[in-house]
Design goal:
By secondary structure, the chain is mainly α. The protein contains 9 helices and no strands.
Length: about 260
């Protein structure tokens, strides 16, 4: 169905592109990594994303299942994941309602929510503190996700934007199993409560880095008013072409009467 929809979707002619025969470096598979490497805020966003995935994966796959099995209520895992989903939806709605024009404020509150959520979950006392923590964690995630997407869309050149997003996804796929392995290794030496507290420490480190990293505040706030250096024009007719020339006003060439 998706393929049929795309096939039937009308596309304007100015978005059709042709392969670049001039060897533009933006055609390189590593072009996205080059853009990231040359931008300190992008490197910071990548580090924050990797750190978050290192923490989220063991929380969802190890810590929560083990806690609810210990309580004799394995079905509560589904409730906790539902609370996270509800929080994510609510956080996204809250961003659109209150914080769309105040991205940095939303970013700061989201990181505070992460730390509070981790502290609630780390109590590992019954089910409701964990449910509440997952709801708050979802709120933070619902705020962060649109901010990150909008910041990347506005600051990364269109020609390599897909490669940059792909690099984000690739690092996330690496970070998740790495986080699982580290938590499994830790739990061979300590109990579940200590593992949960280790996640709290990790979230504190990520939150401090998210708020205090140099250049990140301006990168998130600047929007389209200050595009990244070297950004390509928004509209291109073919690879290597410049922006389309402005249409001339017919009135300027109208013969005098």
């Amino acid at each position: 169905v998706a393929a049929l929809t795309l096939a039937l979707m009308p596309l304007p002619a100015d978005v059709m592109t042709e392969p670049n025969s001039t060897g533009n470096e933006q055609d390189s598979p590593l072009a996205g990594w080059s853009v990231i490497r040359n931008s300190t805020p992008l490197v910071t966003l990548f580090a924050i994303g990797v750190g978050s995935m290192l923490l989220v994966a063991p929380l969802l796959s190890i810590l929560l299942p083990a806690h609810f099995i210990r309580l004799g209520s394995a079905s509560s895992l589904g409730i906790s994941l539902s609370m996270y989903a509800i929080g994510t939806i609510a956080g996204s709605g809250l961003y659109g309602w209150l914080f769309a024009a105040r991205r940095w404020s939303a970013w700061v509150w989201a990181n505070i929510a992460y730390v509070v959520a981790a502290a609630l979950i780390a109590t590992l006392v019954g089910a409701w503190p964990v449910f509440t923590g997952m709801l708050v964690l979802g709120l933070g995630s619902g705020l962060v996700q649109p901010i990150t997407t909008v910041a990347l869309t506005e600051n990364v050149p269109e020609a390599v934007r897909g490669r940059v997003f792909g690099a984000f996804m690739a690092l996330g796929m690496i970070a998740s199993p790495l986080g699982l392995g580290l938590m499994a290794l830790l739990l061979t030496q300590v109990d579940l409560v200590v593992g949960a507290r280790a996640l709290v420490v990790g979230w504190i480190v990520v939150a401090i880095g998210s708020v205090a990293a140099p250049g990140l505040r301006d990168y998130i706030r600047q929007g389209a008013a200050a595009p990244a250096t070297g950004a390509t024009p928004d509209r291109i007719t073919s690879w290597g072409d410049g922006p389309e020339p402005a249409e001339e006003d017919d009135a300027d060439h109208r013969p005098a009467r």
